[in-house]
Amino acid sequence: MAFFLVVFLSVVGGILAGEHVHSYMVGFSLATVAVGCCYWLSFRHTNYPQLALLLLISGFAVKMGITVFGVMWSLERELIASPFVFALSYLFFSLVATYGYFKYREFVQTRMAAVKARLQTT
Question: Is residue 75 within 8 Å of 22, Cβ to Cβ?
Fold first, then answer.
């Protein structure tokens, strides 16, 4: 149900931002890349739990760096015609990408637990 709601809101947002589709797409792409890099860096498996805070801080720094660089690059290329549409798009897709990555992580962990349980029983 949540997947269909996200798809519906994304399509409606894209239609409503018809005149400013470049701003919408820049917000979408920057949000997904920034959240993806932050997620990939922050949730690395390590043998040292003391590094968890360092990984979270470095993930946050990478997310902010990608966002700032992307906004500066997009403004230089004049891709962002409407800052309001960009901001709403970035906010929405940042939340969607975060939700998606955590759902994917939950799915992978349950699959791994099922495989481990199957291997232990045989």
Answer: no
Tokens read off for 80:
């962002």
pLDDT band at 14 (very low <50, low <70, confident <90, very high): confident
Would 1 be classed as within a structural domain? no
How far apart (Å, rounded) are the C-alpha atoms in residues 22 and 64?
21
Number of domains into which the chain is organized: 1
- Domain around 63: 22-116
Pair 33, 70: CB distance under 8 Å: yes
The distance between the two most distant Cα atoms of the chain, rounded to a whole number of Å, is 60
Closest CA to 27 of 60, 75, 62: 75
pLDDT tens for each residue of 82-108: 899 999 999 999 999 999 999 998 999
